[in-house]
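hey so u asked for the seq, here:
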Amino acid sequence: MHFLAKYVIYLTIFFSCNFAYSQKSSIFCPLAPKTAAIDGGIISYLEGGKGEPILLLHGLFAQKEQWMEVGCALAIKGFDVVIPDLPGYGLSSGYAISTYALESQVKILQHFMKKISGRNFHIAGSSMGGTIAALYADEFPNEIKSLAFIGAPMGIVGWSPQIRHAIFEGVNPFIPINKEQLDLEMSLLFLKTPIIDEAVKLKLIKEYVINNRHYQQTWDIVNFYGTSLNRLPAQSVRTIIFWGEHDGIFNISGIELLKKHFPYSQTYKFSNAAHLLMLEQPSMVVDIYSNFLKH
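ran it, structure tokens below
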């Protein structure tokens, strides 16, 4: 089980709702699907463009396609963009449950980048992906040219009051088992929640219910990393921080603490966004991030 059914349903959500997608327009997207055998499993990834490499990492229970618009634009702007499904997520397969530990994710990604690139690279992540990116930069600082948090990372500030309240009521918003809980999840992730067809909602909820134990096991492992960035010493890596002012997962007050751990950082607060900035404000993300990379 590697969240394949949810992967397919989320593609329907993201590509049929309010979010632009480069391949719907006349703009050519250089990204192409590829696979690589790494540490006994298969990593599915997108790659395209020429120039300095950028590794883009998605968050918990997500997939590489969340980065499509941002990734296509960065590739067009002159970067070699690499976007994997993290081990055990999306179409990446063949990994044990222990792989969901973030140290294991870092180890496998390091082997992955050595195999497909072999060069130093920029690394960026969303949510849990940002945490993995920071842990990678701490573990292998000589391989990283810059670090970017595209939205609030896990591990610097606790769950928002909305998340805590839901969990105290017996509801995990990340593993919804009815339509009301799914609506809650979407409202926490987005400032403007996507309009999702009722049939798609039902399929997604069915996926959560059928594979509930696996989702819960993964959640339990990842939740151990709730203070992981706070345990890091101050980092010297050149860093850029994006945080949505309406983030329903991690409150924006955490940005000040994150800056203390990454003192060589630039910070940007997005007034019209919540948690998934690459989906809500892709053009702004690309403009600011590409300018940061080129200077």
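The chain is about 40% helix and 15% strand. The two ends are 42 Å apart (CA to CA).
lmk if thats what u needed
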